[in-house]
């Protein structure tokens, strides 16, 4: 059993920051310059990244520290607040395990700074490790010599929950098994870098590394460029090119396959898809036909050439792997095995993530590569071997005990490693007994002491222990490339027992800095140029190649169209609900309100809230303030504003790759705060909601190009607005000839000013109905909504080539015909009810033609406002 040799190289001499020159006593003392890291407290024995840096790298640390202090002085607010604002602007968030709500991403303003010489060693070690992992995966699912010759125990391979038996023995493939993966690294007190673990299943953190750099660059301006930090943009271009290389078309379509919006890293996946230009799809968006993969779009199935998967192998195909999977794609395995789709990474590659494999990696380097590891593993002993198991039990107090295959086992709750010395007598005895019963489930690992790094916490530089997640990918030539930097996790503890972000942890950008500006140092945005000094040189011709000019927003998957359509409907439904609440509240405190003199009109409005699900029938008898509070804030009512705003947020989560940051920030805001049942306070909350919804409507109109995405958003709004008007007319039918009811109609449709500009008299039936039903120039009229629906549907792509109108367009034209041809005198409430029925039928026809057919149990019912 080979273990990792302890670090025995002497620590480098700490570099001292240059002392500031004192002011002359004969001249007035100038303002105190930024002190930077002069007072930085640190235990040198911890191997601090700054204190042990080479002089030129230490100078970069000091330059950044002084720059952050100067930025804080100039802005007049803590620099952490400036970074926090950028996090909000970018929509950076994450979710802790077991939590439903997202948290803002915790980012330190001070990056980790690593010199090019030190990073070059890390880079070589990562590429060496990538070569080894590729060779091991190829052997496990190919000839199997490592197991047959005794270099790997069969139980080690077959015992992993990530071993994909279906992938074993498939015909050899030309494309690699690994395209992109992440490595968790620790830096010890003497500067030695070690591998804590490999992440071949999901490259979690790669999107956060990109977002960290973007947020920090926005806050600090040219500061990162000034210290010669290498840029990361080329890495993502290489990653995209590496996946595209395995496709069979010149301009392949690459999809990012996500588990969905409830996944812990969904915000990261959405950001990556948007940045790389990949369609963000779920399993139900994809289908397999004739051995090829297609995405269901509004224009019919479109071929997908490659999939960057962010779901486990077991969940990929319910017909081949785990039949219980609800997020996979039936027959995806068949398409993959016959070359119908490329996949990053190949199913089953994550078998090497099992901590137990670390015990055999040193020997595999020698066996397969004939080399010693540049980046050694943390010393690991797998208890599946009798001598190692006995040794681990004997040294329990000196080791971390971890699940051998990364899952919960007896004595280790939640599958998390435990320091043996931290166990009390009872827990220790229970763990030892469990290890005796099933030793193969456990590993012992060396307890690693971590280096520290300066972190800016509460306006003070303090040392924090850290780990770095680095990223490796194949480029368009099939060669390995390493991101020049990565994503760091900082903890207040010297030990990290999990690689997930936990309570109190913060992240930091990782900057690799070159020693001096050279001819290849490109100034400019930190995300848009070739990183200087990379180990692999990209030809200038590749960077200068002209891009093909394109217009449009790419494909629109059926599920995305569905979500856009319903996002527009929920926004419009919420606006209609707020207007009714505002009308009822206003009548209770303002005698000049439109319905203030007619209690029957108020009763009809309360009945309208009941029919829309904003109130229960029992709540209709409550006093007006209590009823309105329930309609605003009761999440148990499907039509309440609380439920509708939650539906807007939930639907918006599925569209994060399409929404701008401003749009998403408004959409995800919670309900306004209000206390008690005071009508004035609730009225202010209603007005604030109306302003917010108006802002969303404005962004929908202005921030989406006139393509399918905007068409479906606006179709949802138009259809919902028309349904709301029909239902409101029917609710007020008995009072329609009263000025109060007509005034309410004008208020609810926001048409008071338009009416008054045309008619000086009090509202009367015919002019009001003409304005609301038939006026094609009024953006609130039924005729206007019908015209827009016809126009939008006509712009959508057709499935056939016969140029004949499809069912949605025919129904929309039939809806418009009476509104465009009949005078107001011909309209009665039976005709209004007929229009409402046609609108509901049109909604169903649109869904049948363009959307996937599935139920949403987690959102308010789809359908009319009566639902």
Automatic annotation (TrEMBL):
Residues 11-33 have a biased composition (Pro residues). Residues 1-37 are annotated as: Disordered. Pfam families: Alpha-E (PF04168), CP_ATPgrasp_2 (PF14403). Residues 556-851 form the DUF403 domain. Residues 111-490 form the Circularly permuted ATP-grasp type domain. InterPro entries: ATP-dep_Glu-Cys_Ligase-2, CP_ATPgrasp_2, DUF403. PANTHER family: BLR2978 PROTEIN, BLR5612 PROTEIN. This is Circularly permuted type 2 ATP-grasp protein. It comes from Novosphingobium pituita.
């Amino acid at each position: 059993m080979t273990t990792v040799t302890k670090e025995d190289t002497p620590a480098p001499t700490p570099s001292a920051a240059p002392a500031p020159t004192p002011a002359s006593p004969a001249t007035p003392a100038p303002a105190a310059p930024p002190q930077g890291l002069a007072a930085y407290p640190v235990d040198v024995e911890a191997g601090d990244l700054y204190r042990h840096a080479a002089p030129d790298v230490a100078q970069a640390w000091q330059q950044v520290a002084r720059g952050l202090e100067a930025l804080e002085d100039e802005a007049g607010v803590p620099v952490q607040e400036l970074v926090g604002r950028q996090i909000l602007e970018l929509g950076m968030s994450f979710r802790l395990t077991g939590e439903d709500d997202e948290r803002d991403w915790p980012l330190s303003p001070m990056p980790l700074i690593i010199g090019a010489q030190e990073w070059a060693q890390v880079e070589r070690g990562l590429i060496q490790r990538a070569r080894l992992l590729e060779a091991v995966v190829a052997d496990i699912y190919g000839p199997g010599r490592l197991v047959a010759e005794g270099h790997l125990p069969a139980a080690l391979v077959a015992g992993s929950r990530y071993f994909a038996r279906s992938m074993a023995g498939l015909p050899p493939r030309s494309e690699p098994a690994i395209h992109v993966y992440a490595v968790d690294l620790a830096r010890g007190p003497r500067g030695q870098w070690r591998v804590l673990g490999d992440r071949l299943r999901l490259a979690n953190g790669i999107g956060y590394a990109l977002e960290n750099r973007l947020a920090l660059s926005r806050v600090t301006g040219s500061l990162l460029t000034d210290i010669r930090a290498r840029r990361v943009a080329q890495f993502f271009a290489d990653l995209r090119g590496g996946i595209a290389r395995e496709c069979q078309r010149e301009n392949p379509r690459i999809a990012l396959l996500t588990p969905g919006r409830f996944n812990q890293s969904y915000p990261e996946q959405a950001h990556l898809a948007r940045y790389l230009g990949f369609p963000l799809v779920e399993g139900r968006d994809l289908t397999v036909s004739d051995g090829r993969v297609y995405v269901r779009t509004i224009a019919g199935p479109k071929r997908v050439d490659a999939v960057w998967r962010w779901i486990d192998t077991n969940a990929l195909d319910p017909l081949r792997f785990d039949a219980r999977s609800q997020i996979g794609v039936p027959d995806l395995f068949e398409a993959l095995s016959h070359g119908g789709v490329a996949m990053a990474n190949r199913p089953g590659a994550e078998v090497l993530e099992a901590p137990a494999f670390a015990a055999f990696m040193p020997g595999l380097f020698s066996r397969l590569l004939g080399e010693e590891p540049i980046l050694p593993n943390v010393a690991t002993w797998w208890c599946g071997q009798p001598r190692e198991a006995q040794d681990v039990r004997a040294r329990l107090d000196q080791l971390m005990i971890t699940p051998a295959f990364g899952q919960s086992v007896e004595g280790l709750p939640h599958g998390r490693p435990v320091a043996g010395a931290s166990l009390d007598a009872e827990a220790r005895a229970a763990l030892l007994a469990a290890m005796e019963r099933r030793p193969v489930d456990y590993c012992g690992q060396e307890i690693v002491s971590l280096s520290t790094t300066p972190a800016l916490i509460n306006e003070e530089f303090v040392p924090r222990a850290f780990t770095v997640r680095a990223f490796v990918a194949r480029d368009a030539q099939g060669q390995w490339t390493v991101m020049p930097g990565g994503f760091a996790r900082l903890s207040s503890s010297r030990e990290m027992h999990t690689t997930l972000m936990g309570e109190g942890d913060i992240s930091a950008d990782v900057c690799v800095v070159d020693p001096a500006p050279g001819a290849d140092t490109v100034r400019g945005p930190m995300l848009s140029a070739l990183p200087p000094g990379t180990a692999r040189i990209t030809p200038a011709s590749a960077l200068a190649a002209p891009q093909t000019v394109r217009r449009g927003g790419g494909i629109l998957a059926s599920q995305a169209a569905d979500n856009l359509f319903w996002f527009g409907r929920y926004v419009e439904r919420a606006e209609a609900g707020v207007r009714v609440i505002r009308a009822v509240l206003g009548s209770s405190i303002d005698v000049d309100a439109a319905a203030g003199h007619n209690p029957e009109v108020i009763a009809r409005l309360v009945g309208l809230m009941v029919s829309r699900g904003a109130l229960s029938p029992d709540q209709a008898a409550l006093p007006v303030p209590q009823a309105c509070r329930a309609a605003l804030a009761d999440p148990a009512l499907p039509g309440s504003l609380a439920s509708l705003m939650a539906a807007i947020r939930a639907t918006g989560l599925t569209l994060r790759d399409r929404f701008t940051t401003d749009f998403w920030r408004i959409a995800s805001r919670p309900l306004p705060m209000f206390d008690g049942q005071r009508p004035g306070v609730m009225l202010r909350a209603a007005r604030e909601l109306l302003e917010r919804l108006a802002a969303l409507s404005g962004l929908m109109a202005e921030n989406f190009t006139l393509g399918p995405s905007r068409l479906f958003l606006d179709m949802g709004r138009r259809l919902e607005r028309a349904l709301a008007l029909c239902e409101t007319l029917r609710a007020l039918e008995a009072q329609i000839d009263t000025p109060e009811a007509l005034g309410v109609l004008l208020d609810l449709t926001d048409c008071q000013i338009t009416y008054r500009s045309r008619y000086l008299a009090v509202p009367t039936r015919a002019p009001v109905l003409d304005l609301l039903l038939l006026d094609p120039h009024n953006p609130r009229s039924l005729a206007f909504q019908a015209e827009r629906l016809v126009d939008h549907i006509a712009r959508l792509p057709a499935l056939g080539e016969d140029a004949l109108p499809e069912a949605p367009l025919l129904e929309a034209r039939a809806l418009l015909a009476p509104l465009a041809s009949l005078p107001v005198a011909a309209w009665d409430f039976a005709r209004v009810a007929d229009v409402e029925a046609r609108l509901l039928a049109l909604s169903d026809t649109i869904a049948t033609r363009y959307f996937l057919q599935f139920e949403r149990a987690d959102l308010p019912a789809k359908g009319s406002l009566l639902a």
